[in-house]
């Protein structure tokens, strides 16, 4: 019989906050203006495409190792293509900062999410386990949405050096929380990173999948993070021992 989990490990982007990736040059103004000032003659759409290609290249290069790369790595590759030369260190840093500002405009804070986290925090110790190319990005958004005090631990792929679903990031999260896999529950919205990966590491998991696209047991599927609390109250003893995770004082 499994003991109830004490810690809730949460994906961040797509789970706690919403994010809209660039599909056009709209919202890309700061980054494009900066590259134009550096001498680029590309259109906004061409510039955006170069950044997208840089992400794709680095993701492909690390597909097997799952080594995480920094946003400055992306900026270096993108600016080389945009400028037709090797960018200076200052240009790389400025490009990464500009892209971060533009990208963050697409991050939204769902209404009621702080209340959801407060409720879950009465039952679990909360931790964030996120794939991100900037070590401060998650903390910045938690602070902006007024939820920083609700989360005890933040573990990022850029901090660990490996991204989900590499076992190292789940091991790092458990170590940071001071628990074993049986004491954790993982929730996220990406099948491999947030469901398969944690379970391979011995961590029970739920997948946020409102469109029913992934092949997971219906008992492990959620429409949103807000639905988790209600699901815990009806889970059977084969899932959580007593059937209900204990409330924390």
UniProtKB/TrEMBL annotation:
Q: Which GO terms describe its molecular function?
A: hydrolase activity
Task: Determine the domain of life of the protein's source.
Answer: Bacteria
Q: Keywords, A to Z?
A: Hydrolase
* SUPFAM superfamilies with a match to the protein in the record: HAD-like
Q: What is this protein called?
A: HAD family hydrolase
């Amino acid at each position: 019989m499994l003991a109830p989990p004490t810690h809730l490990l949460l994906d961040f982007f797509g789970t706690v906050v919403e994010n809209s990736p660039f599909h056009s040059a709209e919202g890309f103004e700061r980054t494009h203006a900066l590259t134009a000032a550096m001498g680029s003659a590309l259109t906004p759409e061409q510039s955006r495409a170069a950044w997208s290609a840089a992400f794709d290249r680095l993701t492909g290069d690390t597909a097997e190792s799952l080594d995480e790369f920094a946003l400055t790595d992306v900026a270096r590759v993108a600016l080389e293509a945009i400028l037709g030369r090797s960018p200076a260190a200052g240009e790389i840093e400025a490009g990464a900062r500009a892209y971060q500002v533009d990208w963050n405009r697409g991050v939204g804070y769902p209404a009621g999410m702080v209340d959801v986290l407060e409720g879950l925090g009465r039952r679990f110790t909360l931790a964030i386990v996120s794939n991100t190319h900037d070590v401060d990005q998650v903390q910045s958004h938690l602070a902006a949405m007024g939820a920083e005090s609700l989360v005890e631990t933040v573990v990022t792929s850029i901090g660990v050096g490996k991204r989900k679903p590499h076992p190292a990031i789940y091991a790092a999260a458990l170590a940071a929380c001071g628990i074993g896999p049986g004491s954790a529950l993982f929730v996220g919205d990406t099948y491999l990173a947030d469901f398969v990966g944690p379970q391979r590491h011995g961590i029970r998991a739920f997948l946020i999948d409102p469109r029913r696209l992934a092949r997971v047991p219906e008992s492990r599927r959620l429409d949103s993070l807000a639905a988790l609390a209600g699901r815990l109250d009806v889970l059977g003893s084969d899932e959580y021992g007593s059937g209900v995770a204990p409330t924390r004082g």
